[in-house]
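Worked example (supplementary).
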Amino acid sequence: MGKVVLDISMSLDGFVAGPNPTLEEPLGAGGERLHEWTVGLATWRERHGESHGARNADDEVVAESLAATGAVVMGRRMFSGGVGAWEDDPNADGWWGDTPPFRTPVFVVTHHAREPLERKERTTFTFVTEGIESAVERARAAAGDKNVLVAGGASLAQQVLNAGLLDELQIHLAPILLGEGTRLLEHVDPDVRLESTRVIESPAVTHLRFEIAASV
Amino acid sequence: MGKVVLDISMSLDGFVAGPNPTLEEPLGAGGERLHEWTVGLATWRERHGESHGARNADDEVVAESLAATGAVVMGRRMFSGGVGAWEDDPNADGWWGDTPPFRTPVFVVTHHAREPLERKERTTFTFVTEGIESAVERARAAAGDKNVLVAGGASLAQQVLNAGLLDELQIHLAPILLGEGTRLLEHVDPDVRLESTRVIESPAVTHLRFEIAASV
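After joint prediction of all chains, the assembly is encoded as:
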């Protein structure tokens, strides 16, 4: 059986989004800087329909993660783009367009029931209103032997950590300061025990991997 | 001329001390866990008058840092042990005992003027009331070709960063969560630009080194 993995970019001061997200800046002011390390990579560009990207250590980490992923779990805000569009219109399309980069089943944790959305390139969005355990369980079933990727945002990540549902945490630590915004590791039970299992460095980002041990 | 270097242990959730520091727990609740990676190391044990420590990658990082250091700058709380003893008694001895581990001149940034303290093994504490620029300048003069080590705490680190006085930041990232306490990278100008220059990993801790580039 695969693992449940949280995979997310974080600034050195602990933020996974900047302040004041808008539809134009769903990651908040400065938040795009968290992902600057990805945008030139071959694997990332292929997922977005482009070619001629860089093949380097960072690209290998991304390719490895994507190849291992059989299903994705994300929060409602991450689906909708971080702002209130979906609450205003429960059938809004979300932020990911016709051809989302996931290419797996995606389970969106939400209080708003709605019909599944089918998108191109094998991405389907299924809306789960029974809570995070149910969403992770359904993603596990869909993923088979592959991993369940918890994609964010911070609130979902914290819930999954605190519920003891996470097997592995991969943080792409960007050498930037955001100063304010949404912190990843806030409201997390400090008894969660982490074991550092791998570090891969590049000038652009440091990939830190932790196994989650049982809480004491 | 040497560099001005901040060298500090930080939890994965960004803390350099836990909550509620006391004389018995100057690093706050759980704060000792930040430094667990150091206590068995040969270099650390030698500095504390003990032998038979471990010689490994972590020890090399500590030995390298100590060998490069010609003077130390610290905040008043770090000198006094984090609590109010010194305010109660301006001539209190501080927290470091007869034989502090620094073995260099130490410049303590404070509002309370007092005579220098001479300790064993070449450690002297000089109290600087003219501000951080003056403390760093005096430490530079004392350090000669060696580095000035900014030892903490967080408030001093933030002031030194924001004043543009820092050349290098070395964070020993411990794979622990403290949940609350004192954050290192709070109140720091997000325009401070960091360049990742070295990563050394061990199971106990990841040593991250950044050069501070000019602010944009």
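Two points are worth noting when inspecting this output. Chain B touches chain A through 30 residues (CB under 8 Å). The first strand of chain B starts at residue 4 and ends at 11.
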